[in-house]
Amino acid sequence: MITKKAIFAAMLAAPAALVLAAPANAQVAGIAYANPTSVVAASKAFGAANQQISTTYKAAFDQMQQRRTALENELKPLVAQLDANKDGKVSEEEGKAAQTAKNPAIEKIRTAQTNAQNDLGRLSNPAARAELFAIESILRQYEAAQLRVVNARKISVVLSPEVFMYAPDSANISQAITAEIDKVAPTVSIQPPADWQPSRETLAIQQQIAQAAQLQAYQQQAAAQQQRPAAAGTAPAATGATQPTKPAEPR
After folding, report:
1. CA gap 120, 5 in Å, rounded
2. Pairing of strands 157-159, 31-33
3. CA dist list (Å): 164 to 29, 61, 64, 91, 167
4. For the chain, which terminus, N or C, has the lower number of CB atoms within 10 Å?
């Protein structure tokens, strides 16, 4: 249970707008928290939007994969020039030695990586804008959906989860807000107007969703490696790049 001390500490740590919005006689038992990023990521509209993006921009994703492969092939002979002992990898000492000697391969590697990043950014930008527009469309439903949950559950204050040192699962209303959004907006458009620009909140949520997806992928990969037979542990790791499951944030 949340103690009165923890609640007052949370309210003091909350943004001023949230604190001022709470009535002076707010009930302690009426405090909840919600995570907008989790709400958006779990919504039906976001899942449907990403499926549509994967289909609509498939050609761009294929070109991005080809560009990554081209970069990998371009870097291999350059990296080999830094591998002094020819063991198939560049150690920290070999990298420092190459920098000290001003090995021209280092600058070529940087140029190749910069060119590839520019190409990948150009190719991914339309899909990233489509995802951003979908996120912002979902966020437009957030306030009304949260209000319906607040009224139904007689909640007095909704805070960010970061301000709590402890709270029971029942205090989390993110799933309830998602369910409300799913009722009124199960799908959203992925076609932004030509002059549309995403808000800072939208950009932040897209980045948080991408980071969470990347972390989950790393965790799944680590778990899969642990489940492999011990004999497979001596096999060389694959170096091929894989296509991301979602568009990259525009640069």
Report:
1. 50
2. parallel
3. 14, 40, 41, 44, 7
4. N
Asked if pLDDT for residue 26 goes beyond 60, the answer is: no
- Say if residues 39 and 180 touch (Cβ distance below 8 Å): no
User: Taking a C-beta distance cutoff of 8 angstroms, is the pair 132, 209 a contact?
Assistant: no
> CB of 247 within 8 A of CB of 128?
yes
Please provide the DSSP assignment of 95-116 as one string.
HHHHHHTT-HHHHHHHHHHHHH
In single-letter form, the type of residue at position 143 comes to E
202 Cβ contact partners less than 8 Å away, ≥ 6 residues apart: 132, 135, 136, 139
Beta bridge partners of 172: 33
Q: Is 63 exposed, middle or buried (0-12, 13-18, 19+ CB in 10 A)?
A: middle
Segment (H or E) for 183? helix 174-184
C-beta separation of 33 from 11 below 8 A: no
* Angstrom distances, CA of residue 38 to CA of 7, 32, 33, 34, 111: 23, 15, 12, 8, 38
Per cent of the chain over pLDDT 70 is 80
DSSP string, 184-206: H-S-------TT----HHHHHHH
What confidence tens digit (pLDDT) does each residue in 186-245 have? 999 999 999 999 999 999 999 999 999 899 889 988 888 888 765 454 444 443 333 444
Please name which of 38, 28, 3 lies closest in space to residue 146, comparing C-alpha atoms.
Answer: 38
The greatest distance separating any two alpha carbons of the chain, rounded to the nearest whole angstrom, comes to 72
Phi and psi at residue 149, in whole multiples of 5°?
-65, -45
